[in-house]
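Hey, I'm writing a tutorial for new members on how sequence and structure tokens pair up, and I'd like a real worked example in the thread rather than a made-up one. If someone can provide the structure for the chain below, I'll link this post from the tutorial.
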Amino acid sequence: AALRERLGNAVYAEGETNMQTVVAQMLLEGKKTIAVAESCTGGLVTSALVEYPGISEVLLEGCVTYTNEAKMHRLGVKAETLDKYTAVSREVAAEMAEGVAKTSGAAIGVSTTGIAGPGGGTEEKPVGLVYMAVADGNDVHCVKHLFGGTRTENKLRSALTAISMVIDKIKARRNEEI
């Protein structure tokens, strides 16, 4: 109880479970569909979701849109947005999440875009810089993280953060409905 009080919303479950299971159960209980657009995570978010039996009831699709062309053609990300902000930006992450939700018909769209490493970073946009977004038709919540570590660590941290964001979005919507 003391831990729950101190940690507040950071507690997503109790007992033996993980975030993937929690988000899958929340999506299924709320009958909320989801679609995922991934760049730097290369399918890890979708892969984590499909570990849960029965997720096919709510997971409409997951797509890896690694190139700018894929982001534009598959998700509707604007060329102007990519030109002005680059693929690794809050603006592109938001358009990716909105685009995957819209094109799939999902209630929730989630996206990841970033620089996993070990190369590709710059002083302005270093390795480990990742933007993640969740869109639900009402608004888009986007976060920026600068993770440190290996390519694998950056991809895993990004995927888990994106899943955590979906949990937070569902919890927030539930609280608004009360």
